[in-house]
Amino acid sequence: MLYKQEHHIFREAFKRFVAEHITPNVDAWEEAGEVSRDAWLAMGEYGFLLPWLPEKYGGYAADFLYSVIIMDEICHAGAVGFFAPLHSEIVAPYIMTYGSEEQKAEWLPKAASGECILAVAMSEPNAGSDLASLKCRAELDGDEWVLNGTKTFISNGGTADLTIVAAKTERGVKDSSAISLFLVPSTAPGYRVGSSFSKMGLHSQDTAEIILDECRIPAKMILGERGKGFKYLMNKLQQERIVLTIQAQAMSEKMLEMTVKYAQERKAFGQSVASMQHNAFKIAKMATEINIGRAYLDSLVFRHMKGDNIVTEVSMAKSWVAEMANRVAYDCVQLHGGYGYMEEYPICRFARDIRIFSIFGGTTEVMNLIIARSMGVI
How do residues 153-169 score in pLDDT, each as one tens digit? Predict the structure, then answer.
């Protein structure tokens, strides 16, 4: 068993927090296009941001299962646009692993309290998965780095207080060894938030463009070693992709739960929609696939916690679970009939939000490429 009694107690506590601080506010966040600062601060106050962080930096050194529980319950609440998991489980670990002691002491306690919202800026208008094609540049000018470039599709981009920016630091070098990472505060001269994106889903997620125009930061704000940025990014992909898979899995579970309840209550032709054989079989198939996804994901979470290198297996999970969750969304909307197309029914939002999971953090096609290469067939 992965989960112990203390994990179950924690889940119940976090469910109560979600019911009080998240669920009542989701609609307002969706309308506003961003999650309120109050929510971030509340998450921090109750210890739900960066739970894995050592106590010296403001965390309580919890194991990864506590993070899994937080992700599960945020997604079950239909608040997947609240990118606390990005902040806590994807961005902050870069600082913890590669940051100097000064950087960790300055930024991690603020991230744990919710005072400092984190983002990571890799994608550019003409460079997504192909990081070697980055155009953003960083040049050393005395005791400052000067950054120039545009970053796009940046999650938490509109509200982030600190962004990890990937930029090229070596002229004339075309491969990934030219990339370095930088900690860029939103208050840095030359840092500007550009356009916010109107998206198909994740309406409460403030996805934005970030413009760096002669943006100056102290030389000490480089993260880790110069030229090691690509290596650092690759080292953290396993964690990033398992985090995204956990969220897609949790969403699929909630979609089925909502749909079964609706289909059992909804009557047509003198019987419940769920009891019609075709629909019952469809529900059974979804339940089977969802349980297969959870079983495989739990095994990977266990291995990830042990420190195993499971990049290929996580790629398999992300590819399969994301596609499975999209199939579940399609069938769940269908089982809701016309009501599934109405915004007042949560399944509508879930169906919009789940679509991105086969795209961001590495598309399904990129995942399949990684798998094929690991098998030696490409």
Answer: 999 999 999 999 999 99
Nearest to 350 by CA among 224, 254, 231, 214: 254
Torsion of CA 67, 68, 72, 74, to 10 degrees: 10
State the DSSP code for 374.
H
Q: Are 343 and 301 in contact (CB under 8 A)?
A: no
Overall fold of domain 236-374: Butyryl-CoA Dehydrogenase, subunit A; domain 3 (1.20.140)
- Which amino acids are annotated catalytic? 240
- Cβ atoms of 305 and 236 closer than 8 Å: no
How far from each other are the two terminal CA atoms of the chain, in whole angstroms? Answer: 37
Question: Which CATH number among 2.40.50.140, 3.40.50.10470, 3.50.4.10, 2.40.110.10 corresponds to the domain 119-226?
Answer: 2.40.110.10
Interhelix angle 277-306/64-76, rounded to 10 degrees, is 150
Distances (CA, A) of 226 to 106, 176, 230: 21, 12, 10
Contact 182, 222 (CB under 8 A): yes
Instruction: Compute the average pLDDT of residues 279-306.
Output: 98
188 closest CA partner among 218, 167, 165, 159 = 218
* pLDDT on residue 177: 79
What is the longest distance spanned by two Cα atoms in the chain?
Answer: 79
What pTM, to 2 d.p., does this model score? 0.95
Burial of 277 (0-12, 13-18, 19+ CB in 10 A): exposed
